[in-house]
Write a structure and sequence with these properties.
This protein is of the alpha+beta class. It contains 5 helices and 4 strands; from the N terminus they run H-E-E-E-H-H-H-H-E. The chain has a single domain, classed as Sufe protein. Chain: A (Alpha-Beta Complex). 43% of the residues lie in helices and 19% in strands. Strand 2 and strand 3 form a beta hairpin. Bound molecules: zinc ion.
Length: 150
Amino acid sequence: MSEASELYQQVILDHNKNPRNYGDLPSHTHSSEGYNPLCGDHYHVYLIMDGDTIKDIHFAGTGCAISKASASVMTTLLKGKTRAQAEDLFKQFHDLVTSPVEQTPDEDALGKLAVFAGVREYPSRVKCASLAWHTMKAAVDKNGQAVSTE
Ligand code: ZN
């Protein structure tokens, strides 16, 4: 394992063990529920939107380490962002996890998202890693509607 992927592994394990912004957000304005039936990942994402800005974001639920770490990292990145910025980050994340393994990720541009570069080596895990992001987008665009990766 390279030094970088070892570090990434540690970040993912840490977020899985101590998820950030975890639990219900009682006064949320937007929410959605996401399932990944292939793995059994199941999360709720809750947001407090102030106009176009994500004032607060939480998630709750259960799933594998990758899905939980991804949801946790996502919440830390999206708090305070606008809807457009959130969509842009989702696109960057999606491009990363679906890019060819031999392509070196642009760590400066990706920031914390770069820890998910290793997911590319396990194609079945791409849905785990993307679930929270799809759920967040559904909450913002189609408040209250559930999403499934299938
Ligand atoms: Zn999973």
